[in-house]
């Protein structure tokens, strides 16, 4: 397991590089713009720290640079020239097909569930099915939280969650210490 | 004896599981109860077992006899499960509930003994569904067809004399199936999928009982404590069952010698069985399991025998083989073998010390459908439960939580809170720094020139130390006490960072080198806040600690 220390190092390094790259020409960036830049660069840095090994990191970067995104140019600037970007060769065709399969399965499931619920409502009273729906609902929520979570099945969802939690924790730690350090510096 | 007791405990836990499972099979009307062990006198169990497994009267009688024994081990989740099963006969009243709970514990105790002796049939049948991982090893060996009810009654009486814990120990996975047969009712609550296990029905129970009579004399004392421990250790919840059972199994293994092997394996299987139940919970809704009847048990018995044979041959973990051997010895109940083999497969995937196999060797549990879909489903569930355990350690406050839904809730809350924290901190950083990268400059403006030499030279202590003094005034809040440690950390960090960064600096332009220096400084700053925890990390990373220490004195 990657040590958290090296992860933080990696994240910090990439984050600072990203911030540098984002040095805007206009001096009077609004606070929200700054916050956006900071957050985006931090997220991208954390995702790239994983070097494309995890699904959520790839999904996060892909989301940042997709066509419909408002900050696409910013994300691209942060990531740097295309040559420097992490190779994401694992993603392509297989993942897309897998995603499509999952989506179609979900649609099928949803339609069948609707039919089922209409027919046999009392079955929902059974404890096992209740548990299933409880767990399933929470799984849906979790999928919406984790970037790229819609494409993961049960087992990988939990693994991705694990990795995502670790990365988030490291990110929060680094940002917090940086904030406190800069506060101290500003006090002087 | 302590160890043996532990084993028994585990066995009991497993037995509980098996009992639970089987109980559900016994009568769908029975409701699985839950959690408290009510000791039912063993005698009751024995007498009832041959007669009517699913009958409420049996449960009632069992409950009475076991009540005394089981009360002492309330923590045994498994026992509890069994108790509930027994109790919950459709017609059972509060008495029955008490009996049911007691029953499993006591029954287990008695059952374990016979199981260890070599019962295969009943135990395997009982355990087949639930404790596949656990039961396979223990049950087959100990279970043998119960010759007479009277013998069982005698044993039950003997067991009742033991403290409740013993009973739980005896319950070893094999015992559980028997108990399950008797207490099949209780399982329902424990785990949805446990319905499968309830299949054991009457036949298994009677078989179990006969076995118990054999085993009681020898294994009783040892089994009971082991099972008690086992049951106590394993939480009632599915998620925990597997984990705790594994632990208890390990404990059992350590503790027991001779016959302890069986109990150990039973425990390990119980542990594995625990996993199974937890995994099964995920699948839930396996109402089809309830439909399973004694016929399935027979089938499973046969399968268990086959499995036993295969099990020994398969290159499974050593423990598995041991369990299988024992199973073969007792092969009366093939279902148990099924469980053991399944357990072995699961053990491979479990977070135990056993080596991992390339593929999971899974066998159909007793009473479960053997088509590939359900097997794959089971494997998948086990994987999920395994990962959930990791998540439990990661998410704070999840240790006490049991159940997938609640744990997922906690995880969701934690992820949401972390994401909100990132938002808040980025906003805070935006307010602190007028420019995006201004913070870096502000922090390192003075130190950049001084520290620039540091990163470029590996382990160049003087440069690093030069960088320290400028940092110190800027961090008065850190306190004098923290400095020596932090300096140490900072030195180490710098060195490691420089070692990290020098390869990068080659391709970097000047500003990047600056950024590297900044990163070093920032890392130092960051490390200062991390405290000693990170110090240990950095020290591990960088072996040149003495130099760091010397710097402190500068």
TrEMBL record, chain A:
Keywords: Transcription, Transcription regulation. The keyword Zinc-finger does not apply. It comes from the Eukaryota. Signal peptide: none annotated. InterPro entries: IBH1-like, IBH1_N. Residues 6-64 form the IBH1-like N-terminal domain. GO terms for biological process: regulation of DNA-templated transcription. It holds the Pfam family IBH1_N. PANTHER family: TRANSCRIPTION FACTOR IBH1-LIKE 1. This is IBH1-like N-terminal domain-containing protein.
Automatic annotation (TrEMBL), chain B:
The keyword Transcription applies. One of its GO terms (molecular function) is DNA-binding transcription factor activity. Residues 368-418 form the BHLH domain. Residues 324-340, 533-548 have a biased composition (Polar residues). It comes from the Eukaryota. Pfam families: HLH (PF00010). SMART domains: HLH (SM00353). Its main location: nucleus. It is found in: Nucleus. GO terms for cellular component: nucleus. Residues 217-355, 533-554 are annotated as: Disordered. Keywords: Nucleus, Transcription, Transcription regulation. PANTHER family: STEROL REGULATORY ELEMENT-BINDING PROTEIN, TRANSCRIPTION FACTOR BHLH49. This is Transcription factor bHLH49. It comes from Gossypium hirsutum.
